[in-house]
Known about the structure:
Layout: E1 7-12, H1 15-26, E2 29-34, E3 37-41, E4 48-53, E5 72-76, H2 80-89, E6 94-100, E7 105-111, E8 117-123
Amino acid sequence: MNVSSxxxxxxxxxxxxxxxxxxxxxGYRVVxxxxxxxxxxxxxxxIDVVLLRSGTxxxxxxxxxxxxxxxxxxxxxxxxAAQEARxxxxxxxxxxxxxxxxxxxxxxxxxxxxxxxxxxxxxAAAADADPAGNDETAPWS
Length: 141
């Protein structure tokens, strides 16, 4: 299997609020949009994001009233400290300050107006190490 791209679909109460947050603070841009829908991309390796308004009929009935919760949209970035400073200066809602975990992960979190947690991550481990533990010989590669 070859995965050519990845998209995270989030059901939220206010599509415009999440769209504006991702575009303003994280450099996403709108690819297409309609009432209660927005498709966002960045043009780099970041995951694309689709936002759907809760209650929309394009979703199966058992999914319509669910809203994004209990997940973290994590983006691995470079120059994490500079990103945190930039976002603080821009008034972004940083809900967990920059910290380093014992295993070498540096991170901070923001929360968008719909409660979606966005985590920016940078690995403090050696550049030649693969912190995600990707194995090129895995059966799905």
